[in-house]
UniProtKB/TrEMBL annotation:
Record: active site: 373 (nucleophile)
Keywords: Glycosidase, Hydrolase
NCBIfam families: PRK09593.1, PRK09852.1
Keyword Signal: no
One cellular component (GO) term of this entry: cytosol
Species the sequence originates in: Superficieibacter electus
Pfam families in the cross-refs: Glyco_hydro_1 (PF00232)
Protein's name according to its UniProt entry: 6-phospho-beta-glucosidase
Family designation: Belongs to the glycosyl hydrolase 1 family.
Keyword match 4Fe-4S: no
GO terms (BP aspect): carbohydrate catabolic process
Single annotated GO MF: beta-glucosidase activity
PROSITE patterns per UniProt: GLYCOSYL_HYDROL_F1_1 (PS00572), GLYCOSYL_HYDROL_F1_2 (PS00653)
Length: 475
């Protein structure tokens, strides 16, 4: 069996602090945005920044508060990853474990000690940590006191936090991502960037000004990471998936291009080091005037080393798309593509779309790619024998790994692959536990009941074989 994957290809899985750790107030941690996002009918308005939620309510359930208790069970979970043969584990640092309020001059040592223990545990098994600095969590104090990323001061708070991470975990962590799915702030502003809208706001102005601050912060963090250790590799992170034109009508093709640009704008800056040419007209037409400081354009030239992305599905656009005929798979609104199947949650399943997306990204950026999220959210049942036979998940992953192999054969350098939610965790969009992605089942339901016990699924053994054969054996 031959494998298209290079011998040093990194295989593993991904999680995020807010969806896995729980222990939301332990170890000195402060409240973050995601801690305020309830499960149930109020979830969406809060996530979108339409409903202000600055205090917790007694009548609501907040899935991030306990999540899957990775905070106390990380040793067991990392051992399971090691058993599958992981060579990389992507997770995030909860900003508010290190800086509970976000604006303190000094970090919380207990938070640092926790992550050091996690990364040392990875190293014990030769698992390379891949660490996201900000995965959908902003310390709440920064939201209530400063307006989150609306405020230029966030650049300083974030870079202080980033520097602390690069220094504290130097030698343990080499691969870093600045902001998870940075483009999601346009589509889900509170969960993406801690933004809440006020009466009279032009939301587009607020979002793109916040985006500018994040882009400056990301570039500065990249510069600091390289200065602290030239071996550090820093990536940006896109919620990926190309837009297909719904038809070959030129207007549909144009709309698909515009929709792609909306998401790629961020990566265009982070990977190429300057605002793209098309931005000026887009800003003008949306009534946006970005306030820049002297020196910002110079800072943005600190580009990333690699481009990471999530891929769940391709997207589809037409000149006639509107709120009624679109759905929001992975939060980005898309028309339903009649040529592809969808998951139980209506997310498209399109492995060739992954190859298309990867080719487009490499053509555009000429930087190594890293696929840091991919997977199928599905309901899992425990059968009479006590097993979970998740063949649907195996089949989804097999086809996507095959497509990624094709992209590598197309000539694209790819650093690695981390499937999303390698151990079941809380879904970001819905807050459900029952939307499962893992190779390992976690006994917990949507209301927070369950033992939290871990159990290997059929896909666990399958993925172990995939890794052992370096992607040659996908059967
Ligand atoms: C990405 C996020 O948007 O998709 C993850 O980076 C998220 O945090 C994942 O969990 C899958 O989405 P969901 O809503 O099914 O959890």
């Amino acid at each position: 069996m031959t494998s298209p994957f290079p011998h040093n290809f990194l295989w593993g899985g991904a999680m995020a602090a807010n969806q896995a750790e729980g222990a939301y107030l332990e170890g000195g941690k402060g409240l973050t945005t995601v801690d305020m996002i309830p499960h149930g009918k109020n979830r969406l308005p809060v996530k979108l920044g339409q409903e202000k939620r600055f205090t917790l309510r007694e009548d609501e359930y907040y899935p991030s508060h306990q999540a899957i208790d990775f905070y106390h069970r990380y040793k067991e979970d990392i051992a399971l990853m090691a058993e599958m043969g992981f060579t990389v584990f992507r997770t995030s640092i909860a900003w508010s474990r290190l800086y509970p309020n976000g604006d303190e001059p000094m970090p919380n040592e207990e938070g640092i000690a926790f992550y050091r223990a996690v990364f040392e545990e990875c190293k014990k098994y030769n698992i390379e940590p891949l660490v996201t600095l900000c995965h959908f969590d902003v310390p709440m104090h920064l939201v209530t006191e400063y307006g989150s990323w609306r405020n230029r001061k966030m650049v300083d708070f974030f870079t202080r936090y980033a520097r602390t991470c690069f220094e504290a975990f130097d030698g343990l962590v080499k691969y870093w991502l600045t902001f998870n799915e940075i483009n999601i702030m346009l589509h889900s502003p509170f969960s993406g960037a801690g933004l809440v809208f006020e009466e009279g706001d032009n939301p587009e102005q607020v979002k793109y000004q916040a985006a500018h601050h994040e882009l400056v912060a990301s570039a500065l963090a990249t510069k600091i990471a390289h200065k602290i250790n030239p071996h550090n590799q820093v990536g940006c992170m896109l919620a990926g998936g190309n837009f297909y034109p719904y038809s070959c009508k030129p207007e549909d093709v144009w709309m698909a291009l515009e929709k792609d640009r909306e998401n790629l704008f961020f990566i265009d800056v982070q990977a190429r080091g300057a605002y793209p040419a098309y931005a000026a007209r887009v800003f003008r037409e949306k009534g946006i005037a970005i306030v820049k400081e002297v020196g910002d354009d110079e800072i943005l030239k600190n580009t990333v080393d690699f481009v990471s992305f999530s891929y769940y599905a391709s997207r589809c656009a037409s000149a006639e798309m509107n709120a009624q005929n679109t759905n929001a798979a992975n939060i980005v609104k898309s028309l339903r593509n009649p040529h592809i199947q969808v998951s139980e949650w209506g997310w498209g399943i399109d492995p060739l779309g992954l190859r298309i997306t990867m080719n487009m990204m490499y053509d555009r950026y000429q930087k190594p790619l890293f696929l840091v999220e991919n997977g199928l959210g599905a309901h899992d049942e425990i059968n009479a024998q006590g097993e979970i036979e998740d063949d649907y998940r195996i089949s989804y992953l097999r086809e996507h790994i095959r497509a990624m192999g094709e992209a590598i054969e197309d000539g694209i350098p790819v650093l690695g692959y981390t499937t999303w939610g390698c151990i079941d965790l809380v879904a970001a969009s819905t807050g459900e536990m029952s939307k499962r992605y893992g190779f390992v089942y976690v006994d917990r339901d949507d209301a927070g009941n369950g033992t939290l016990d871990r159990k290997r699924k059929k896909s666990f053994w399958w993925y172990k074989k995939v890794i052992a054969s370096n992607g040659a054996d996908l059967d």
